[in-house]
């Protein structure tokens, strides 16, 4: 009897819990509707800083910058009041998230030999996003 219950109830219970977790998120994603704008700003900024420093390829720098821009956007969306957060960005948060995201992305993409340089590029991306989008 015990094996019969396990064979019939457990798969159904697992399927129901998986559907509940994956199909019904408890909280919407943090990134706002301007994530593509910030990813574009990040890609362009990182391509320029990579060219100035002579580090990496254009495509690799664009990818790192795009991911960094999306991370900066997402971190800005995590602040409690979305209207206030969108109009008044925090420069320290934007630069810090940019530096961290670019350093991690560099490790993931295989450009881990210059982690400090990746962090500097990411900080530049965060600062550029802050300067271009603060108050908009």
Could you outline the blueprint of secondary structure elements for this entry?
Layout: H1 2-23, H2 35-53, H3 58-77, H4 82-87, H5 91-109, H6 115-133
Structural class: mainly alpha
Unreliable segments (pLDDT under 50, ≥5 consecutive)?
none
Q: What proportion of the residues form beta strands (DSSP E)?
A: under 5%
- Report Rg: 20 Å
Number of strands: 0
Number of helices: 6
Order of helices and strands: HHHHHH
Mean pLDDT: 78
Question: Percent range for helical residues?
Answer: over 70%
**Quick one: biggest sheet?**
none
Structural commentary:
The structure is a single chain. The protein is mainly α. It is built from 6 helices and no strands. 77% of the residues lie in helices and 0% in strands.
What's the gist of this structure?
This protein is mainly α. Helices cover 77% and strands 0% of the residues.
Question: Can you tag this structure with a few keywords?
Answer:
single chain; 136 residues; extended; mainly alpha; 77% helix
């Amino acid at each position: 009897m015990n094996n019969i219950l396990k064979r019939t109830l457990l798969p159904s219970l697992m399927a129901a819990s998986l559907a509940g977790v994956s199909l019904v998120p408890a909280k919407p994603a943090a990134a706002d509707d301007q994530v593509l704008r910030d990813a574009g700003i990040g890609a362009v900024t990182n391509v320029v800083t990579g060219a100035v420093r002579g580090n990496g390829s254009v495509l690799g720098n664009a990818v790192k910058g795009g991911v960094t821009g999306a991370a900066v956007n997402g971190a800005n969306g995590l602040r409690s009041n979305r209207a206030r957060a969108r109009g008044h960005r925090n420069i320290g948060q934007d630069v810090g998230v940019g530096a961290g995201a670019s350093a991690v992305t560099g490790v993931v993409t295989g450009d881990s030999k210059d982690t400090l340089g990746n962090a500097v590029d990411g900080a530049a991306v965060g600062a550029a996003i802050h300067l271009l989008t603060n108050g908009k």
